[in-house]
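Pipeline run #58 for the internal structure catalog. This entry was flagged by the ingest filter as a single-chain record with no existing model, so it goes straight to prediction. Upstream metadata was stripped on purpose; only the residue string is passed forward. Reviewer on rotation: M.T. Logging verbosity set to normal.
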Amino acid sequence: MTETLDVIARRFACRAFTGQPVPHDTVRAIAEAGLCAPSAVNRQPWRLILVEDKAVIDSIGEVGLAALKEQDSASYDRIIGRGGKLMYDAPAMIVLAEQPQEGAFSADLDLGILASHVALAATSLGVDNCIAALPVIALKGPEGVDRARALGVPDGFVPTLVVLLGYGAGPGTPHEPDPAKIIG
C-alpha cells in the first residue's frame, strides 16, 4: 500500500480530543495543504480561518449546542449521547467558509473536497480530526454573523464546515469500507 492509501485508510472521525494544543506551524501546514484542493473551474470559492483559541472553540460549541437543541432535537440528542460536546474538546479548528456561487457550479461540492484535503493532510501529519457541519450553526443568524466576523470570516463568505483538529483521547477506528458499494 502506498503512503497516500495508508493515510486514507487510517483517517477516522475523532470525537474525543485530549485538548493538547496542536503547534501553529502544523495547523498552518494543514491549511496550506487544503489550498491544493481542486475546485470547479478553479474558482477556489473559499477561505480557511484558523482558530487556535480553545476558549473560543468551546464557546462556539456551547452556543451551537444550545441552538441545536432548539432547531434539531434529534441531532442534539445524538451529540448528548456522545458526551454532550459539539467540539469534542478540540484545541484547534479550521473554519471553511464559502463564497456562494451563481450559475452552474455550487461551492458546496468544492468545500467538501477542500474538507477532505484538510482532513487527510492532518492525518498524514499525525493530527486527528473531524469534519463537522453542526458547529457552523453558531456562526449563522444575526448573532452568528458577528461571531463569524470576530473569527475573521470575510464579508461575502459563509461558514459551511469546520475541521476540528487535535490529538485523540483514545485509539480511533476508521469506518469499515463496504466493497459491495463498488459496481463493476
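catalog note: The chain has a mean pLDDT of 94.
catalog note: The radius of gyration is 16 Å.
status: ready for reviewer M.T.
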